[in-house]
Structure prediction request, 95 residues.
Amino acid sequence: MSMPKVLLTNNLYEITLVRRGKEVTYFFLQEDFLVRRTDDVDADDFNIDENGYTYYVFARENFQSQHMSISLQPYEAESILDQIFDLTGKYACDY
Prediction:
């Protein structure tokens, strides 16, 4: 279990996740970033926590881009939110 890494530079979150054994880095606008959760999931979804929720990033990479979503493991969502709170003093979630 590899924990995500979050940096904040020039109003961009740089989030590094491990996907299929490789580090993948995403850049998201700070002002338009949320970690969201939903209980409207398929029974086969492996990212479901003990309360029946699945988590994802909902954000834009730049001002011209559309919103995108990236599925997260529950521990990744918690780690990202904790790191963002440490960096900014704000919660970046809608729950």
